[in-house]
Amino acid sequence: MKYLSMLLLAWLTAFQAGQDIYICKNAKINLYSSAPIEDIEANSSQAVSVYKASTGELSFSLPIRSLHFEKSLMEEHFNENYMESDKYPKASFKGMVLSPPDISKDGTYPVNVTGDLEVHGVKQARTIKGEIKVNGGVISMTSEFIVKCADHKIDIPQIVFHHIAENIRIRVAATYAPYKN
């Protein structure tokens, strides 16, 4: 959490905290893997996100160990064998909402976000579809996309191929509050 607080502070300082900066300290991330033998799901509500409405700048940071699985053994294997969470403690995204909506108007806006997704120490340029909702000044974002394990050099041994999918579905949900000094 200390790392996330420092990241958030650095990001806010870099953009000189203005009136159009919004933060979410408890963004929800869901991972889902469907394989022939079993489905695997993990959830976290500890991701931090910052959104600058005037420019569309958007960042997310997720502590990998905050993802919790139904079975503790799955969680242990995920952190130690696949994600190497001690070596790569976070996943992050930094990018821009293309054509950011006018947040002074309530509505639901489909958006595309382009930027770098870093998972397992490997950055990959991505364009991700999502949705921004504005309701009474409250901004929320949702997205669902697929991450290929191979794209981030996450090795899945052949012996567990029927337990873990090569493509992982990611769901993101964040509700933002205006940043106040």
TrEMBL record:
<feature type="signal peptide">
    <location>
        <begin position="1"/>
        <end position="19"/>
    </location>
</feature>
<keyword id="KW-0732">Signal</keyword>
<feature type="domain" description="Lipid/polyisoprenoid-binding YceI-like">
    <location>
        <begin position="52"/>
        <end position="174"/>
    </location>
</feature>
<dbReference type="InterPro" id="IPR036761">
    <property type="entry name" value="TTHA0802/YceI-like_sf"/>
</dbReference>
<protein>
    <submittedName>
        <fullName>YceI family protein</fullName>
    </submittedName>
</protein>
<dbReference type="InterPro" id="IPR007372">
    <property type="entry name" value="Lipid/polyisoprenoid-bd_YceI"/>
</dbReference>
<dbReference type="Pfam" id="PF04264">
    <property type="entry name" value="YceI"/>
</dbReference>
